[in-house]
Design brief:
The chain is an alpha/beta fold and about 425 residues long. It has helices at about 10-20, 35-40, 50-60, 70-75, 95-110, 125-135, 155-160, 175-180, 195-225, 230-240, 260-270, 280-300, 330-340, 350-355, 365-370, 385, 390-395, 410-415; strands at about 1-5, 25-30, 65, 80, 115-120, 140-145, 165-170, 190-195, 310-315, 340-345, 360-365, 375-380, 400-405, 420-425. It has 18 helices and 14 strands. Helix 9 packs parallel to helix 12 (about 280-300) and helix 12 packs across helix 13.
């Protein structure tokens, strides 16, 4: 099939690369000329496992093409995916200006029947709004559909090829048939529904997962107060098939490009419908306060943080990505610096991005160097390589052998035996 993907950000790049490698002819479009020039050379602007390999393979096989020209991208397209960003506004509302701008360009460029599929995360009703924008701009018949993505950064390629489900929101038989055909090689349950429901599914899914995170973080605080182990409590909860174990790992809270933005957007959308989504507001509040709770733990052990040297391991919002959007490290570092702490930091891939937004932080490519003369190690992102560090060596490098594990990730028993003071979340 012939596809066009509008927007070559995280979702757009993955979508284009995966479908090209499944044998389709794909045109990726972006208004950023430098990005398009880099993509044509096989260079990706983000770190994502396997993505560059898929990109280069698609280019080599001549199934993947990039352009800034809508007419070129849409010339033969049967399906047009809108994958542009929907960034949050300062008040937490959603910004759909990029979606609407893409719709106007699509309307002026289509010359034959197409199915316009909104893959960007958008509030219910956006499909109808896009239809109203496109309709006056073309005499060509078209269909509107929604096919939300459920990609996890760090495993986006695998999630695309082996998803938990494929949600197809359509209002016509033609769109349904075409999207089912496109996804035929991908083995996963299909849910066919209307466009509005498909868009709400994405918001509701992210809000529910964030709820699990804030819930277990609240339970962790109770565990700290009574001497229980939240990792065992989580395990007991997860064995209940009605609950499941995913997203029940206590820590510093959720971050990233999706959960914070989508929860705020759902609260805002509900308000527009006359409903006060107070439940989700509390989820947001718990997540914000989790950083404060962690700082209190640090102060309890170290006293005043003024002129204390603290070493941060992990800056990205999660492992296997260089994404710092709403990363817990950013908020934690700001609070520690406000209390007078000196910050040293390491991350396997996110230092370059971190240097753009974090000031008065000393960055190290070597995690051991980041720990020299440190008063405490703060584990913020659960990169697998941090479990493999030589803690005997680390003990000799640090000024004080104190570890604050913000993800309950490091081997507590081993560290305690080595003589470290270990403090996790709810352990």
């Amino acid at each position: 099939m012939k596809l066009a993907v509008i927007g070559t950000g995280y979702v757009g790049m993955v979508t284009a690369a995966v479908f090209a490698n499944l044998g389709h002819q794909v045109w990726g479009l972006d208004i950023d000329e430098k990005r398009i020039a880099d993509l044509k050379k096989g260079k990706t602007p983000i770190y994502e496992p396997q993505l560059e390999e898929y990109l280069k393979r698609g280019l080599k096989n001549k199934r993947l093409h990039f352009t800034t020209d809508y007419s070129q991208a849409l010339r033969q397209a049967e399906i047009v995916f809108i994958c542009v960003g929907t960034p949050p506004k300062s008040n937490g509302d959603y910004d759909l200006s990029y979606v609407y701008a893409a719709a106007r360009q699509i309307g002026g460029a289509i010359k034959h029947d197409v199915v316009i599929v909104i893959k960007s995360t958008v509030p219910p009703g956006t499909g109808e709004a896009v239809k109203k924008i496109v309709q006056p701009l073309t005499s060509t018949p078209f269909d509107i559909a929604s096919c939300p993505e459920f990609l996890r950064e760090g495993s986006a390629i695998e999630d695309s090829l082996h998803p938990s489900r494929i949600v197809i929101g359509v209002d016509s038989q033609k769109a349904k048939d075409l999207l089912l055909k496109l996804h035929q090689p991908i083995k996963a349950p299909r849910l066919i529904c209307d466009v509005v429901s498909a868009q709400l599914i994405k918001y509701a899914a992210n809000a529910f997962l964030a709820t699990k995170i804030s819930f277990i973080n609240s339970v962790a605080i109770v565990c700290d107060r009574i001497g229980a182990d939240v990792t065992k409590v989580s395990q007991g909860l997860g064995l209940d098939p009605r609950i499941g174990g995913s997203f029940l790992q206590a820590g510093l809270g959720y971050g990233g490009s999706c959960f914070p933005k989508d929860i705020s957007a759902l609260i805002s959308f509900a308000k527009r419908q006359g409903y006060n989504f107070g439940f989700l507001k509390e989820i947001e509040r718990i997540n914000r306060k989790q950083i404060d709770y962690f700082v209190q733990k640090i102060e309890k052990h170290l006293g005043s943080l003024k002129n204390k040297t603290l070493s941060i391991l992990g800056l990205a919002f999660k492992p296997d990505t260089d994404d710092l959007r709403e990363a817990r490290s950013f908020y934690l570092i700001k609070k520690l610096q406000a209390k007078g702490a000196r910050i040293k930091a390491h991350d396997p891939v996110a230092i370059k991005n971190a240097q753009k937004i974090l000031k008065q932080v000393t960055f190290y490519k070597d995690p051991y160097q980041a720990l020299v003369d440190s008063h405490a190690l703060l584990l913020v992102t659960e990169w697998l390589e941090y479990q493999k560090l030589d803690f005997v060596k680390i003990k000799k490098l640090m000024k004080q052998t104190v570890i604050f594990d913000g993800r309950n990730f490091l081997p507590k028993e081993k560290l305690v035996k080595l003589g470290f003071i270990y403090e996790g979340i709810g352990r």
